[in-house]
TrEMBL record:
Name the record gives this protein: Thioredoxin
Source organism of this protein record: Natronorubrum aibiense
Span list, region Disordered: 1-22
Record's keyword annotation contains Transport: yes
Site (Deprotonates C-terminal active site Cys): 39
Cystine pairs: 45-48
Site (Contributes to redox potential value): 46-47
């Protein structure tokens, strides 16, 4: 059974990445969860594909929600966050954007970044 942003109780993070369908969906996920790591990606992007298992691991191993935004499907949303290259990772804590990084980051750096806001 697949989990989505609507399953479980508010504040409880799903164990796999949530695929964002619209700006309002992203706003809802960010509002419902303390820490959200958003992966702006493209299916044709090699580094994005390398990051995929890392993002899945973070979703299951951390208290953060991992959300994925396909920049080709949601170009306006990507533009709203100033995404110029993929992958771009945006971290939200308590509903506010706190960090943004373009390019692949190692799993341990991402985990430390998340844990800095979940403790």
């Amino acid at each position: 059974m697949a989990t989505d942003a609507h399953s479980g109780s508010p504040g409880q993070s799903p164990d796999e990445p949530v695929h964002i369908e619209s700006k309002s969906h992203l706003d809802e996920v960010v509002a419902d969860h303390d820490v959200v790591l958003v992966d702006f990606f493209a299916t044709w992007c090699g580094p994005c594909q390398m990051l995929e298992p890392v993002m899945e691991g973070l979703a299951s191993e951390t208290d953060a929600v991992v959300a994925k935004v396909d920049v080709d499907e949601l170009q306006q949303l990507a533009g709203a966050y100033g995404v110029r290259g993929v992958p771009t990772l945006v971290l939200f804590a308590d509903g506010e954007q706190v960090e943004q990084h373009t390019g692949v980051l190692p799993a341990d750096r991402l985990r430390n970044m998340i844990e800095g806001y979940t403790e």
